[in-house]
């Protein structure tokens, strides 16, 4: 005999599901309605929101803290069913960037997966040589960029000139098919998922 399951698990069920998924893969998740009202979140998502300070939970809504990121947050709430969206918050701030991957769970809700560059360990990055044909030195530079270092910090860290590092970055972007740091972060974050 078939048992009919409820169409929606309710807040407690949704939180339990997000918590279980987080325990399985170590990713922070939020479930929101299309207006940005928080439906459910795992504990890891709350920790990341508090640590990053790029998103805020105000009057039941999840919002971007700075105006520059508000447009990105709004676009992630509008992801169409069957589609995914990605954004990187905090690029204009002096903080670690926050990656958000979004997928619609139906016409009324969207699920976000959150991660910070600092929370991603190098071992979690894919093999950059196999994926993009990067040399070991190019891969190290991309890993450093992904971890939030500036080109000048990378040059100092590896005892290279800033010119050499910038040339490496340009070649890496060409090999990866990206045009900027934000595109690189989003591409690597989605590969690491």
UniProtKB/TrEMBL annotation:
Presence of keyword Cell division: no
Alphabetic keyword roster: DNA-binding, Transcription, Transcription regulation
Any GO BP annotation: regulation of DNA-templated transcription
Listed GO MF terms: DNA binding
SMART domains cross-referenced by the UniProt entry: HTH_LUXR
Keyword Transcription assigned: yes
Top-level taxon of the source organism: Bacteria
Residue stretches making up the HTH luxR-type domain: 131-188
Cross-referenced PANTHER family: DNA-BINDING TRANSCRIPTIONAL ACTIVATOR DEVR_DOSR
Gene3D superfamilies: Winged helix-like DNA-binding domain superfamily/Winged helix DNA-binding domain
SUPFAM superfamilies: C-terminal effector domain of the bipartite response regulators
Protein name: HTH luxR-type domain-containing protein
